[in-house]
Design a protein that fits this description.
Blueprint: H1 25-31, H2 63-68, H3 74-100
């Protein structure tokens, strides 16, 4: 009976760890195929009927109404409050710099 050279210690399918040398950038770049040899196959999605799913009371001619579908009304107060707080801190910093001079 012949003995197999494939044991758990020298199995070729087992990933090697430990003594593996890190590849250099040049070695990694050599593995990348030449762009001219790559054949691009565009994705051709199936054609389907476009359907608009909007609430029935939406005025599609009003930009603000369309924006409010994605941006809730309370966002405006958050932006306004934070903009005003930012302006106040900048004004205070500006006055402190002016008074320090």
């Amino acid at each position: 009976m012949e003995q197999s050279n494939t044991t758990p210690d020298n199995d070729v399918t087992k990933p090697q760890t430990g003594n593996r040398k890190k590849r250099t950038i040049a070695e990694l770049m050599a593995l990348i195929p030449n762009p001219d040899s790559v054949i691009f196959e565009p994705l051709n999605p199936p054609k389907h009927q476009s359907i608009l799913h909007l609430p029935s009371n939406t005025d599609v001619d009003d930009p603000y109404t369309l924006l409010s579908l994605f941006w809730p009304e309370n966002m405006w107060s958050i932006i306004s409050r934070n903009t005003n707080l930012y302006a106040i801190t900048k004004r205070i910093e500006s006055n402190d710099a002016y008074n320090a001079a």
